[in-house]
Amino acid sequence: MPSISDCKCVLVIGSTAGIGRSLALAILDLPSQPTVIVCGRRKERLDELVASHNATGRLKSVTLDVLSERNALKSSIEDIINAYPDLDAILFSSGIQRAFDFTKPETVDLESLECELATNYTSIVRMITFFLPHLIKLGEQGRPTFLYTVSSGLSIIPAAGIAGYCATKSAIHSLSISLAVQLKEKNVHVVEIIPPLVESELHVFEGTTQRLSNFWLSLEEYTKVTMEGLVRGDPYVPAGMVVEQHKKFEEGKLEAAMKMYGQIKAMTGK
């Protein structure tokens, strides 16, 4: 099975902090020595990351706002592809989290909710669509290429207080399965990374960090476990408590989707 160890150039979108940053540095340390492009909207953080971890010269940076207007985003992605024609893997780690109380609907900030939806889902669908022609072309040339999505254990069992966030991660989860099925014959491998509660600055509930730290997986341990799955070439990579949740509620779903897709193609000829 092809895996992240086969990649020559990996773009990590949303790598200025948390899981994205940690995975980017772990990928940089792979024995295969890929080029790693860290990507986000906070240029000062990207500059700091490159300055402190670029002894090999293989760590690059690109500033990108995933909420850019559609044509501007497409143009930015075309610029990245032109600058890095060996790009064969994209990891989508950008995301935000908001809390909404639907028992008090007058307090629900729809602008904030829609921003969360755009950041966590719509922008990722757009970027995948814009990157795919390049990845498919490389795949047809015999090079395995990769889309790494980041969902969440909350796509399996939601936390009601952050309903919007959970819904966006459920959408990424479903999308990942569908893309894995559709793109299999194109040599584009879709891998879903499914984190549990991980040490992060993402969490929205004030004053809960100390209590959450009793339950979350440390960023160091999470990165270690996830990299092991990526190197093995697993089609999905849960960690921590999500391993059991995934086994209980999701096992066999990818295979079932593959079977259904084949049956529909056989019936329709499409």
UniProtKB/TrEMBL annotation:
<dbReference type="InterPro" id="IPR036291">
    <property type="entry name" value="NAD(P)-bd_dom_sf"/>
</dbReference>
<dbReference type="Pfam" id="PF00106">
    <property type="entry name" value="adh_short"/>
</dbReference>
<protein>
    <recommendedName>
        <fullName>NAD(P)-binding protein</fullName>
    </recommendedName>
</protein>
<keyword id="KW-0521">NADP</keyword>
<comment type="similarity">
    <text>Belongs to the short-chain dehydrogenases/reductases (SDR) family.</text>
</comment>
<dbReference type="InterPro" id="IPR002347">
    <property type="entry name" value="SDR_fam"/>
</dbReference>
<dbReference type="GO" id="GO:0016491">
    <property type="term" value="F:oxidoreductase activity"/>
</dbReference>
<dbReference type="InterPro" id="IPR020904">
    <property type="entry name" value="Sc_DH/Rdtase_CS"/>
</dbReference>
<keyword id="KW-0560">Oxidoreductase</keyword>
